[in-house]
Amino acid sequence: MKRNSWKKALSLVATTGLLAGVLAGCASSSKPTDEKPANDPAKKSSKITVWSYWKEQEFELVKSAAQEWAKKTGNEVEIVIDNNNEFQKYAAAAQSGKGPDAVFGMPHDNLGTFAKAGLLAEMPKDLVNEKDYVDVAWKAVTVEGKKVAFPMSMETYALFYNKEKVPNPPKTWSEFLDIAQKQGFMYDINNAYFSYAFIAGNGGYVFKNNNGTYDTNDIGLANEGAIKGYQTIQDFVKKYKFMPADVVGDIAKGKFQSKNIGMFISGPWDVAPFKKANVPFAVAPFPTLENGQKPKTFVGLQTAFVSSKSQNQDKAWDLLKYLNENTSKKALELSARIPVKKSILDDPSFKENQVAAVIAEIASAGEPMPNIPQIQAFWTPMGNNLKLLTQGKSTPEKAAKDIVDQMKQGIATLK
């Protein structure tokens, strides 16, 4: 998707009841920071202001948990909701000294911009045990080797299939092609967010990630693997004729919802419509590619962070930890937000929900969208060249070169 499209999609995952029942037997408890002597300055009451980008029922969930923390710690918490999703508003407010102590519910690909401006506090190293969380979560919140946010939940896409048309989802590439030819397959093919999975699965990458630091001079979208990925995408249209070159997400979704095709790529935001339409669907991991690897999907993380301008950073981090530990399971029930804590993901009651379990599996093995400002130079060149590729107006080799050249031009304008 273009840079903010996936966020819009995530705001539409109002799939209440989708994951009902996963909470049974998964009770969680959290304790605020250890008690301190009465003369300790940290013991004094403080007011913590939090901006929340979670809305409606989720906002009430965050607000309730925050008030619990306030009562337990003797502090005051003010939760302010942002209904417009104006993520960049935080930068102006923080720089002027009028920003919040913390922000909750921020998509992770905004972090690099704020970190570059010096507006994010580094997460205390002893706040949590990192091994308790899936690795992809920490990759998403690490900027220049520093963890600058708390990972709250993760999101990605999967292979949807009609169980009447496709009793058993494909596991190998040959099985996938065979089923697609017989039962039909479509997705928003010119959308970089979705098609990137086939590029990355073959060995392509946006920027080389060196232990939490992206090298924007090392763009892996024209290597041998990336070219193989472009060929795969072009073959979907030109060789196998699974879908027209101008197919868009709504058309592909409509074909699947009307039961005209057997397979479709999307995320949990489409579960509720399919259930309402009585589509006999399930979701599955992507089949193994010809190289023996799985397509590697883009993963989006919802995060929470503390402002570097806050005078109450320790308390703000303690609050965010409490919110994570006391909202994750309910957020899963309310709007299909997939937790990032292993204890929840490993719980039998979570695994009973097929949709949640499969998406969590795919996301855990996926690739977080780069969280640096230079990712802005990726979406348009990739989208435009995918259109030329699927229309047969470009070759995989030419698309590879043009994408990288155009990205470099775009990055140069950002400096």
UniProtKB/TrEMBL annotation:
> Where is it mainly found?
membrane
Q: Would the keyword Cell membrane be found if you checked this record's keyword annotation?
A: yes
Q: Which organism is it from?
A: Effusibacillus consociatus
- Family according to the record: Belongs to the bacterial solute-binding protein 1 family.
Q: Which domain of life is it from?
A: Bacteria
Q: Where is the signal peptide?
A: 1-20
Q: Which UniProt keywords apply?
A: Cell membrane, Lipoprotein, Membrane, Signal, Sugar transport, Transport
Q: Where in the cell is it found?
A: Cell membrane
- Lineage of origin: Bacteria, Bacillati, Bacillota, Bacilli, Bacillales
Database matches in Pfam families: SBP_bac_8 (PF13416)
Membrane topology, as annotated: Lipid-anchor
**Protein name (database record):** Maltodextrin-binding protein
Mark the transmembrane ranges.
none
